[in-house]
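So, can you check these tokens?
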Amino acid sequence: MIRVNQLSKYYQSGEKQTAALDHVSFDIKEGEFVVILGPSGAGKSTLLNILGGIDELSEGEVFIDRQSIGQLSENALSSYRANQIGFIFQFYNLIPTLTVYENIALMKEIKEDILDPMYILERVGLKAHAKKFPSQLSGGEQQRVSIARAVTKNPKVLLCDEPTGALDSETGCKVLQLLWDICREYHKTTIIVTHNANIAQAADKVITVKNGKIKDIQINAHPVSIQEVEW
């Protein structure tokens, strides 16, 4: 599903060049639940942004479903982001003047073959809150809305950047359980960027990043469920 080959990302500041990513390579299979682990500043979010077509790579190749995203035009990149990628961020990016249902149903403006918004709201346990506004929800509920929005778009890949970073541990566990269930039920390739090593216990694959380089790639033959994770 995803192949990253010798990926590098450089930032230029005057005469100084800094490598946010330095010749990174890995593969991810379709339907895998993957955790990208590492401390702040390791290059995790940069990697996620390149996979999502938000940031440009400097060197190397990135293939998503056999498509080289580094060679796409701006229009093709926009189509790629709209059709194949679902983003879930630490901060929920909901539109405050729209109801929960309207925030999710917006996906109809982006893509034709979306899933039924009300059904997905029911799946994330928020059907009863469909007519509420984001400000009337807890942080965990708002994050579930953002997950429902990403899933409703029916993407091939879910990219999650610290999705539990703004939540308490109990609520964070519920959100992770939801992501894990969606990955398994809908066979969505799910990539979670985090500095929380505990989450790795539930991953099919753990990619550890440090100083812009791959430090380790671990495959879990028998990943535990989120409920079994030792917090």
User: Anything to note?
Assistant: The helical segments are 44-51, 74-84, 100-105, 117-123, 139-152, 169-186.
